[in-house]
Predict the structure.
Amino acid sequence: MKKIVAWKSLPEDVLAYLQQHAEVVQVDATQHERFVAALRDADGGIGSSVKITPAMLDGASRLKALSTISVGFDQFDVDDLTRRGIVLTHTPDVLTESTADTVFSLILASARRVVDLANWVKAGEWKESIGPAQFGVDVHGKTLGIVGMGRIGGAVARRAALGFNMRVLYTNRSPNPAAEKAYGAQRVELAELLATADFVCLQVPLTAETKHMIGAPQLKAMKRDAILINASRGATVDEAALIEALADGTIRGAGLDVFQTEPLPADSPLLQMHNVVALPHIGSATHETRHAMAKNAAENLIGALDGTLTGNIVNRDVLKK
Ligand code: NAP
């Protein structure tokens, strides 16, 4: 019987599905040695939110497939997996709409200061009718700049253009004609997007090219009243530069779902800033979507192990080997 290592707890029905096909060993990824030892005689693996380094796979000679319960696959060295003949699968599409909802909640919460003012009310500060010190800025009718107009970027653009009458600009290495046609989105260079957008929203994957793509020069190039939204990966932004820009008023604020270090350390200056909305990486975190992702990832893994999977494969080249 095949053996699967799971390094994330799985919903009962998903676990039962996997157990119909293989022996499933659940491991605690924080117990590094045990985790690596379990991979050594496994045929497949499923999980998320843990860095899987090449060294961890040395000796895992039976390993044929790894399935990440996420769309992003920056926790893996894809070229190394391909060299080893290991298929990597991921879960695009099922999480797109929930993640776009999170992005939009960050846009609204940052612009209208929802968290800051809700805390102010709970602290008993609401003693008279509010004034300009409690005002926010409008979202409707403003310009949204999306960096990375893919699946999630497109779903954010739909909310912005059709729901909030926003003008949508975007950057991508390749054009997205569907978003241009459906939402009037306009492809521009990053410099123009930064100089024009009221909200700059990052939705690129984390790669060598996108790491720190927003740093001090890019933050300076944004409008002083602009808000940065990041629900991609923490490392797409130079966090030290962002903290400085938020502290000195280079930009108005930030809505962040992802950080350089997660969980966000308790001494992060971001936690003290009134112009920051910080969420604990909840992009896709609804009961419905997390279940759909786990199910999708389990089906991907079984399909990859029995050689029937055709979609959701990150490293298609491995199939040519
Ligand atoms: P996707 O469909 O692949 O979209 C990514 C877009 O980024 C593509 O349109 C791609 O277009 C563009 N892109 C890639 N490299 C670029 C570059 N160097 N410069 C400009 N654009 C670039 O992926 P998705 O499903 O929308 O997911 C996007 C990312 O969101 C994931 O990789 C993940 O890291 C993150 N995410 C976060 C959460 C969360 O919980 N916060 C949840 C889900 C996803 P081109 O290739 O044409 O450039």
Q: What stands out?
A: The radius of gyration is 21 Å. The first strand starts at residue 2 and ends at 6.
